[in-house]
Amino acid sequence: MADRNSNAGCFAGGGAIYGLGIIGAWVFFFQRADAFWEFIWAFFQGMFWPAFMVYEVFRTLAG
Question: What keyword terms does UniProt attach to this protein (predicted)?
C-alpha cells in the first residue's frame, strides 16, 4: 500500500526536463559537427551542457 504522505513522485519532472535538455543539446551540437572527433566531443558536450547552464544560472542569481 502506498504511503499517502510520500513525496517520491513530486520530483520526477525534474529528470524529464533534464533529459529533454540533453536531447536538445545533442541535436544542437551534432548539427554543428563535421568530423569524427567533433561528433565525439558533441556527445560529451550534450551530456554536460545542461548542468553547466544550470550552474551559470544559479551563479548569476546569487551574485
Answer: Membrane, Transmembrane, Transmembrane helix
pTM: 0.66
Query: What does the DSSP 8-state code read for residue 52?
Result: H
Angle at alpha carbon of residue 36, lines to 32 and 38, rounded to 5°? 40
Q: How many C-beta neighbours within 10 Å does residue 38 have? A: 14
Q: Are 46 and 22 in contact (CB under 8 A)?
A: yes
Q: Tens digits of per-residue pLDDT, 18-60?
A: 888 889 889 999 999 999 999 999 999 988 888 888 889 899 9
Q: d(Cα 10, Cα 41) in Å, to the nearest integer?
A: 34
The residue count of the chain comes to: 63
Residues 6+ apart with CB under 8 A from 55: none
